């Protein structure tokens, strides 16, 4: 029965072959980054996934991890150069696209790439382990394409391009951090995976060198992971608060038609827009007192009441609807201005 895995020599030759800078790969990369940018701009998940499937960004990252693991610094150098070239090309294409794109607001898919957490670290590491296992197989598998989707290398690069085009520093920092997480932990997972596979060292090193590299990798991991833990903690707290707010509104405003609910984090204010029979002030105060029962002590409740439309004349109903729409548009405009100023 034929061996389905590459041996050490075959795998090294395959890695070196894949790390050549080719015109065809550059064109594919530019197409992938353009598709991913359009997908982020249009908030289209299927388009983003399609871009990640054809992206060649994964190859040099695996090359860096492999080279470090077997002390083959020729491969490390080639892989690092290729990665830098591909990232540069990607940033140029993404920045140019978002500069000329008529859609300048940040979509949900763009915003999602600006707040990395510990879960992104876990995904990148697990993806790196799966990626190096898939790369060592001779037969074609769906592992590497699946890893490319799971680790999502393209979207953060596109988001960096968006932040450069719109001069949004906070998005630039968040997306850059996410890309660093993905690259670092795919590399670390590859390093560990190759060691477990017991590939022979290309250059023999003393135990002192082994310890030095291990310490360097552990230190780098901690340096990258710690901020993501804080970010995850904040995300969990926000998720709990959001769930509490939804439960509060559902329970306390069950007798009214809730048109809208919004929470202002800076002012710690929950605004609930309702329609129906007028709610007395003492009822509003009573409901406000129940906030602490939902873990929302310190939150200020603001009830925005709109009369029952069924009891209004057509002209009056249109008046309230227009006022409500104008108010929401103003809120969205102010929110957009605040995000751009950040």
TrEMBL record:
InterPro entries reported for this sequence: DUF389 (IPR005240)
Source taxonomy: Bacteria, Bacillati, Bacillota, Bacilli, Bacillales
Keyword Transcription among record annotations: no
Organism: Listeria fleischmannii 1991
UniProt KW keywords: Membrane, Transmembrane, Transmembrane helix
Domain of life: Bacteria
Transmembrane regions listed in the UniProt entry: 21-39, 45-68, 80-98, 118-136, 143-165, 171-194, 215-236
Leader peptide range in chain numbering: none
Protein name according to UniProt: Integral membrane protein
Keyword Phosphoprotein: no
